[in-house]
Amino acid sequence: MSRNGRRKADAAISLTPMIDIMTVLLAVFMVTTPMMTTGIDLNLPNAGSSALTGNDHAIQISVDAAGRYYLGDVQMTRDEVVRRAVAMRGENPQLTIMINGDRAADYGAVMSVMGKLKDAGFQRVGLRTQLDK
User: What angle (nearest 5°) sits at the alpha carbon of residue 113, between those of residues 110 and 87?
Assistant: First the structure.
């Protein structure tokens, strides 16, 4: 057979399988992402009818009643929390941080991590509260 007589391969790429896989991955990430930002169980202070509850895309930093620091649900030192937050900011410059301070937590511990984050250049740092009942 000559070169011209050979059957030419179809070079078209079918996008349907790739779209199906991406849709499944998107659904998995949408379900698992809220579970990753839950943090630890805290007794948040009440702050009236316009409480700051935080958004789902913010980094959750928690300070429990004993003054221990958590990033998500992983316990670490204050300086480690700040270092990790700075590393995360490299991926998202508009990063928001919500500090969840337990009602019985030392005020100094909560303000200490907030001050360190401000010193590290974070502009969007908030304190999370709950609604009055």
Answer: 145
